[in-house]
């Protein structure tokens, strides 16, 4: 009986979070049942093949990029010791704090034909344009590079959390079967971290799919640019929603394919003894350092320096009280949203673990699809939903109480928080789920047999064991909310601005220097919690290792 | 009086497979039950169903008269008041030994907890280990902590899944006695899975053998050993070999061991082909005996050697002999049958079912088995 | 008293003038900025309960869609209507223009003799093969330009023009307007299409490299012999369910006042919509030219057709 | 010839604690060695040091004459050619049974792998389980897969950490024989940790008992049982009770069991206080005997009952009696000493060291232990 209620509440909360997606599904259904094909037909004939091609290239490229960058850095910083490893282990999150389009702007500024690099080349060698070959930064390759640099921390963070929990005995079993540490990594650690890697990559890809700013700036036409072109250019919102529906269908197929390929395999390990790290020396240590520093330098330090330069140029802003108000708005919003979203995610992910019925699993999966859909589309879906509820409320209250409360849901921060929940739930759920998969089910059972109810078990057993994953989720969602733009633009109330909106408005008018201070502030606001939380993660890792003595096998 | 634990024609499925089939068990309050059975026969699955981790496909589970599991209904595990020692220990890696043990004592004061932890730790031979983390313990030590954790809250029913498997013989025996005492003192009913028949015999009030999901017999350990109701039980418990014979006259049987006389044969019709159980201690080495064979293999067993002997008729049997009387492999030996109990089955039930998915069917054995 | 404004024009480009209005009249202005289409969607969904009194947006296409969506009510004040030329009014006076942005051709002063140029049709002339820079057709500026040409030239000619333009491109249509101007300065192409205010921003930039680039390009005002240089509009309308109609009308009137027009146009180097307002120095330096006085609603009406046409022509 | 495995005064520390102390072991190629010892004595730690997962604090480990571990040097585990069955199995949860088993066969062709997997699966009694995942197996099944995985690549040295602990007696015995055969066939040297003395006796060429980190004796199983060199060994192997006595004359001793004569006492000086080992099979129930006691407890052990008897002198001893001769607790019983081997130690070594951190010190036992 109680189980049924629990199931019902899970499904209900998942469905509520998935409601804005319903609007898209509805548009698609409309199409199926004798809808208007003219827009889609035109698009099919002219641009969609290209959208698909570009989107695919972009996704494959970004997937390869984030996996290489994320997994290598995660493995090096967890299982090896080398100079700078501690600093790097949290600093590698930083690229995430950088909005992708800002990074895109900085690199374009530097590497474009009119930028300092090419100008210098021309001036030094007396070349003019066309005399020399230089990679075109505004290209699909450039977009892949920039998105990989900015998004690899997803893979890094989530994979790192599982590497930290990986059992020593499993790796030792590999070595007793004749595998070198490197082979152990490839054949055991990597496949075992697969849910995490896939999760991180899926998030990066969903973000890529939903990205508008970067690809648009780089002139790469993708499905998402197509959606907006259809909406803005053709003035056809339904057509745009239909395209979004196709996107959604593609994402669902992808996810299903991956789930299916995992089959029955499980990833929890029996012995929780964490693995001993390798002490790297000499050339290997330098190489490891280099491998970790490169993505940090290109993904964060260079763009941040550029931002800093702009900020110095526009120093007046720092004395503006408006600007500090923006900062506070952004920070508070990100914090509240992150806590809210992660709480929801834990509730859903844990519920799914406890009651893995088809119904619950499907509805939770559905609630987590929002990340792949461009934020603006979600915002519009939500708008339709919330305003119609609001209108009903207003109608009722005016009729019965002769009182007009105004737009309670759509006109307040509620709408924003709701939108963030829909959009970023996936980030949190997937991160938490990757962590949960590492906890043996017998832990749950051992706790319940002692008379604890599921929620108590969650508090006593799972949350402590999940700490790295939950903190990771908080960081990811927080930083994402800080950067979030389209939904914030559409749904925020009057006179409420955030750093992201300010940076975007400036950058959108190609006033890059003015975009510098808010972008830098965004990075800094994101930075502080990132450092604090990753400290906490590091500490929980060390706790587990405290009494443990290592075999510092020199690799 | 109501039984504390009652399983009623229980069936449990994992995926498509029927893992537990038609199991009925009764345990009175305070009794200790013991499940034996080959690896993979469904013991753990049965315990998990009792604990409430596994839905039942048909039949029911009752605790103190109240149905807790039925096909459409599974009471939540935390409401059952059951303790469990998991086969893989399932210690909480983030909690110390003391925190692990006191985990289930939800309503106890800190002092009570401390006291109980101290008491249990010294009972299991690990005093002073309060502050350790599970990964700082050896396998056997972890297992003992798991045991202590299950005992600490004094559950009304305790399920133990091979709780002593990682312990050395001496400790295991001592602990079995301690635990039995503790269970009896604190009036805890227990169901124990073990692979150690000695342990089962030593601890259990009731015992049973599971085979491919079915519980073949559920009686006292003595009955299990001396009056097995089923060939599988006879075969599984105590190293038996089944031989063929034919009853020739009332109380007499022609067999590879020669003519055997036994009161339990009196009820069997003359001419019936039967199979009967021969345990190593049923055959005594005797240089004078006419029954002779060749030693095929010798195994040192501490106090005894276990010899595998091929009789002249080609039949292989086992026998024990004190280990300082070294008999060489290949040498001849005389054997004297010395049956205290003769366990006889209908001969056509002699083949063991070999397909894992095929359940053994229960045909009643022809003569009612008896003990002398 | 307050008035609530939804604005697709960015905060920095409108907030100061609104603050001046508040200072003058004591009427509080609450502002919500955002993307034009998204704000429109919000307005439509909020319906009668929308708090917005005014909707301010850039581009004729957006204004047209807003008018079509029925969220505006006609403006009635004669003073307001008369201060702005008729072609900058929405159909049924549902909205009114506030400023104009011109989209001429830029050329490399070093390499191009402006006398070779006549108008937008040059962009498709094989003579300029591999010499033209223009941004993506995703951009509303290009969509409006094409929509205007569609009205002037008809579908066939415009499509041929778009195809010719695409084949003349010196580089893929990427980057913003400023990038096209810079590309001309860097020698990537000889001709570029961009809005003038970007040149203004570059001329006023604190970065010497930008100022130098700006100095290398000249403005050519196209089609002075025929329909004139393409201009687009930013405009404002009174929402259908406005609750603060008086204040809103006061604000519109203020925005069309001399003082506001000057500032409003000058901050972004745009041209004032009210004809007799004096241009800023920079605009005067660029010279006088004939603006296309096509009725703005055509830009909106033709927008979808223009996008489809560009899709077909392969203009990405 | 060089030994395949040689441990030389090995010390291993975990944190501050010396877990393995001064262990020296030698195993010739093809031999099977067996480690016994109470839970937590350091067996697993020793195996992990041999495998290369644990640094040694002093001493050395050599494989076929080549030093692989020394205080400053640890050869990487994968370079040693050692296989290991882990106490907690450590199966790869993301791989199927077949993939797990063939995991270490890196240079084998797919066909070879398939064949080896099939062969091993049928040997361990799990044919047809190739496609399962570890979590779909019972505990005992998982353990057998871990065994097969370690066997598959035919390592030169195999370390087995309680490889049969989760199996039922019958299977365990069968498997022990199979594995022994396989090891001998494939010329694999093995070091086995087990808690089952029967198993140790059945499998091992050499065996030893560890106690608190020290290896007390390393000899043949027979010697371990019948000629323990240390009280701890005597105590640990085969259920012994140590009693006190005084040698009165050459070959004779006064003891709680009365005067005992035994050849092994001939070398001990008259008047020496000694302690000696009494195993249950050394005392035969005999109603006529003058040595009498009261039954304090009875344990059913299948073929036998194990009785704990308090002699009139207050000393408690154990004895065995066939299980159908039911003697009641509280009743009187007569016992006849029947020592085949008499194991005698110096009397002052009679206390067991009780602090876990305190090592037993080795004083040589007074009379050289002997067997009759
Ligand atoms: N990380 C550690 N720090 C301190 N002591 C430890 C640590 N790990 C294990 N120990 C101790 O080392 C001793 C030996 O452990 P080991 O695992 O070798 O025992 P074992 O002989 O294999 O026991 P079992 O038969 O129970 O498996 C144990 O007493 C254990 O408590
Ligand atoms: N998820 C599953 N799907 C299908 N079969 C399963 C699954 N899990 C376990 N089994 C099978 O169920 C049977 C019973 O398993 P169970 O764990 O109850 O055995 P057990 O009697 O406890 O054995 P052991 O003594 O080895 O622990 C085994 O044959 C096992 O292979
Ligand atoms: Fe612009
Ligand atoms: Mg089991
Ligand atoms: Mg061990």
Automatic annotation (TrEMBL), chain A:
Q: Name one GO biological process term.
A: transmembrane transport
Where is this protein found?
A: Cell membrane
Q: Where primarily located?
A: membrane
Residues in ABC transmembrane type-1 domain copies? 52-256, 327-533
In the bilayer, the protein is annotated as: Multi-pass membrane protein
Q: Name one GO cellular component term.
A: plasma membrane
Q: Which residues cross the membrane?
A: 51-75, 87-107, 137-157, 215-234, 240-257, 285-310, 330-350, 362-387, 407-436, 457-479, 519-538
- What UniProt keywords are attached to this protein's entry? Cell membrane, Membrane, Transmembrane, Transmembrane helix, Transport
Whether Transmembrane helix counts among this entry's keywords is yes
UniProt cross-references to InterPro entries, sorted A to Z? MetI-like (IPR000515), MetI-like_sf (IPR035906)
Q: Does the keyword Cell inner membrane apply?
A: no
Q: Which domain of life is it from?
A: Bacteria
Family recorded in the similarity comment: Belongs to the binding-protein-dependent transport system permease family.
Q: What is this protein called?
A: Iron ABC transporter permease
Species lineage, top-down? Bacteria, Pseudomonadati, Pseudomonadota, Gammaproteobacteria, Alteromonadales
Automatic annotation (TrEMBL), chains B, D:
Q: Which UniProt keywords apply?
A: ATP-binding, Cell membrane, Ion transport, Iron, Iron transport, Membrane, Nucleotide-binding, Transport
What does the entry give for GO biological process?
A: quaternary ammonium group transport
Q: Return the Pfam families for the record.
A: ABC_tran (PF00005), TOBE_2 (PF08402)
Answer yes or no on keyword DNA damage.
no
| Single GO term (MF) | ABC-type ferric iron transporter activity
Cited SUPFAM superfamilies? MOP-like, P-loop containing nucleoside triphosphate hydrolases
Query: What GO cellular component is one of the record's annotations?
Result: ATP-binding cassette (ABC) transporter complex
InterPro entries, per the entry: AAA+_ATPase, ABC_SmlMolc_Importer, ABC_transporter-like_ATP-bd, ABC_transporter-like_CS, ABC_transpr_FbpC, Mo/tungstate-bd_C_term_dom, P-loop_NTPase, Transp-assoc_OB_typ2
Task: Pinpoint the ABC transporter domain residues.
Answer: 5-237
Q: Which PANTHER family match?
A: SPERMIDINE/PUTRESCINE IMPORT ATP-BINDING PROTEIN POTA, SPERMIDINE_PUTRESCINE IMPORT ATP-BINDING PROTEIN POTA
Annotated protein name in UniProt: Iron ABC transporter ATP-binding protein
